[in-house]
Amino acid sequence: MKRTPAKDDSAPIVIGVDPARFGADATVIAIRQGRDILELRRHRGADTMEVAGHVIDAIEEFKPALVCIDEGGLGAGVVDRLKEQRYKVRGVNFGNKSKNPMMWGNKRAEMWGEMREWLKTASIPNDRYLKTDLISPMMKPDSKGTIYLESKKDMKSRGLASPDSADAIAVTFAFPLASREAR
Who wins on pLDDT, 104 or 178? Predict the structure, then answer.
């Protein structure tokens, strides 16, 4: 949080979205460029069409190379609406199989693992919600050493909120993205 942003304009922009509807959770749209989080946008109480509108606003403003959306729960409706509107977005199911199932128990654990490596040199906003989100979920290795993250349901039973901001950043690591180098 105290690291100076790299401001690498040649790095592609990726948008990650963790949709929520009503209640305690927030929809978070994370805009990442290389090692920097350019912006975190939070919206509370928005229905799926409003969330799709907020994502469209971010797409139009930042012109990302990739948009990844958590499609679990109501996120599928947001993905469907954006695809209907001819936006190129990719849905991510956090429970899907990881690329390395011996190490990561599911896609969510894999993305969080990649985000953890990225954070070693990244620049993120000084944001108390993000800080709490990043440190809240516990790692849960199974008997074979495969790493899982604590479920959101288990977190809520411990009195913790859903890690909306961290999940929005983590989803930006769902798919590989080639870097554009200036020549």
Answer: 104
